[in-house]
Amino acid sequence: MPMDDQADDIPQGLVVPGLGDESRRAALWAFLVVSVLSGLALVWPVYPLAVDLTPYVFGLPFSFAWTVGWLVVMFVALVLLYRTDAPDPAD
Length: 91
Description:
Blueprint: H1 22-41, H2 47-50, E1 56-57, E2 60-61, H3 62-84
Antiparallel strand pairs: 1-2
Transmembrane segments: 26-47, 59-82
Protein name: Polyferredoxin
Keywords: Membrane, Transmembrane, Transmembrane helix
């Protein structure tokens, strides 16, 4: 039995809820960009540029400080993404 409207077959908001909201979509895109940048910063070919024991940053070798810095960047990005999520009115 053929269906007349195939647009009804696609579940809306099942995988990523709230994509209809423009501000939420912008926040998700910004988070995606930061995630990709931090991922690229921690693998080849970018990470070998930061592999060095000197200089020391807060007492850590630069390569370790580089990794910790990107971890902090991802933490801040997750906090900001969480804060853009609207609270559920049922709660």
